[in-house]
Amino acid sequence: MKAFNGYGIVVDKQDRVWATQIGTAAGSQPAVQMYDPKTDKWTAYPTSSPTRRLTVDSKGTIWANQYFGNRLVMIEPASGRVTEYPLPLKYGNLYEVWADLDDNIWASNSVYNSLVKFDQKTKQFTYYPFPEFRTHVPKMEVDPEGTLWFALDRFALTAFKPKGNKPTRASTK
Fold first, then answer.
1. CA 134 to chain centre
2. Residue 167 pLDDT exceeds 60
3. Sign of CA dihedral 13, 55, 137, 107
4. Looking at the chain, which terminus has fewer C-beta neighbours within 10 angstroms, N or C?
5. Phi and psi (nearest 5°) for 170?
6. Are 136 and 108 in contact (CB under 8 A)?
7. Model pLDDT for residues 115-146, shown as the tens digit of each residue
8. How confident is the model at residue 173 (pLDDT cuts 50, 70, 90)?
9. Where residue 33 sits, what CATH number does that domain have?
10. pLDDT (tens digit per residue) in 55-73
11. Using CA atoms, how far apart are residues 44 and 126, in angstroms rounded to an integer?
12. Per the structure, how many domains does the chain have?
């Protein structure tokens, strides 16, 4: 692989390493890169715009954000197919991306001050406003209860429960 400006990395259940890049070398095609240690080979999955941040859903599908392209990118490793889903609002600049327990894809969108949910079944986007104005989510995680955890601009730890405030498994016994 030639010059690489990495901006995200994940390892899937088959121990393949997926890397994304926010920039590309002059004349090169933007792509998500996959390294397979079993074959010691790199494979490029071309995209229409550079990507940043990656996640893997429960089916092994790879997801990335196009910060400048205003799209969510889906890569199906088995077929090699790359599908891009444009956001319904212009200039979204998605940053972080995470798959939840139901395989919904969540992305942070500071331009619209929101979390954006992509429902894989309906192919619909839903925007959820942040509790603070003019903020940014640099990293997101989901816990075993399905709560999304993130920091708003490094200062406020935030929990978002997509299914509402339901009792946890521990408290229902």
1. 21
2. no
3. negative
4. C
5. -65, -35
6. yes
7. 999 999 999 999 998 887 778 888 889 999 99
8. very low
9. 2.130.10.10
10. 999 999 999 999 889 999 9
11. 30
12. 1
Pair 29, 3: CB distance under 8 Å: no
35 burial class (0-12, 13-18, 19+ CB within 10 angstroms)?
A: middle
Looking at residue 111, its amino acid is V
Give residue 151's identity as a one-letter amino acid code.
A
Q: Which amino acid is at 61?
A: T
Paired sense of beta strands 5-11 and 71-76, if any: unpaired
Residue showing tokens 């995209």:
47
User: What is residue 166's DSSP assignment?
Assistant: P
Average pLDDT over all residues of the chain: 88
Looking at the predicted structure, is the pLDDT value of residue 172 above 50?
Answer: no
The one-letter amino acid code at 37 reads P
Q: How open is the CA angle 93-50-118, to the nearest 5 degrees?
A: 50
3-class DSSP assignment, residue 12: coil
- The letter for the amino acid at 6 is G
100: left (phi over 0), alpha (psi -120 to 50) or beta: beta
Which amino acid is located at 88 in the chain? Answer: P
* DSSP bridge partners of 129: 114
Q: pTM of the prediction? A: 0.88
Residue pair 30/50 in contact by the 8 Å Cβ criterion: yes
Q: Domain range holding 166?
A: 5-172
